[in-house]
# Entry
Amino acid sequence: MHKAICSNWRAALLSGLVIITSGILTLGLPPTPALAGCNSGSNPNTDLLSSFNCQALATGANSLAVGNNALAVGGSENTSLGTSAITGGLAAGSFNTAVGYGAFGGSFGGSGNNTAIGANTAATGGGSIAIGGASTTDNAASAGGQDSIAIGINSNAGTADGDGVPLTQNSIAIGTNSNAAHTNSTAIGAGATTTRANQVMMGTGSTTYTTPGITSAASKAVQTGPLQFVTSDAGGNLAGRTAAELGLASAGDVAGVNSQINAINTQLSDINNRLSSLSTEARRGIAAAAALAPLITPSAPGRTTFSFSTGFYRGQTGASVGFAHRLQWSTPLIVHGSYSNGGGGEHIGRVGFAAEF
# Structure
């Protein structure tokens, strides 16, 4: 609606200002620190309050209007560049900029700091920006909400009432035919249109989305706490939900499964510890067996021999001592024994006798 308001107001204002300008020039009033002119044709004029030949008019202090029917009215520090470009407004709006044919940077309620760039663009909300010209006002970018931004052909950010007063604020529309008509809303992509306040709308029903970084290690590293599923309804509204919320399992089921998983993990940890202990014991036993002292036969009856030896197996070390004694019998008879240890509680022993016939 504010596009139509801007167009109608521009025509009415221009007609009235032509009459006022004629009166100012007839009375010979001293010019203000403003500049207006066409700077083209056979009769350029840039040294008066207005350039009547092309109806350019700058009324505010430090304002500038350049171009046929260009207007810089209302407050101060307004700049209009282009045919029919208008800055200012029905109240004393200042610091407005309009660049392009028919561009309108101003307001209907006195707020300034509006910027309109492109043919027929309109920035009227106060602190608003409109970029994206078109051949008609209906297709140009329009920012009617306070502190709103519209970028793209036929983009629209914010709404205004019948008098042009902003009804919404802080809206952003980026993309051809994008529309952010709600407070604190953002529309991104061609045809994107918000439906409620505090909403970010991206694209349309035919839009596809690609986010290569979503599977990266960096993205996963910043996630904390329990993970959730991202769900969408038919309208594309996104939300994060747990399995219980989706009806895949009740909260009790999830808690029970988690308890069982924790118990299994505990048992697996215990099994791993036991396997590690058994592996160590086996290696020590093998090292002790490898170190078991051999039998050394005494040279004569009544003599005793002693021996010491070591053994090694896969990082474990065994040590062994042994003895043998030859009895003083008519029949040669030897008793012997040995002991070996691979470390810790792994003990190996051996006793026996030997005879000669």
Summary: The first helix runs from residue 2 to 27. The longest strand covers residues 316-326. Residues 291-355 form a domain with the Pantoate--beta-alanine Ligase; Chain: A,domain 2 fold (CATH 3.30.1300.30).
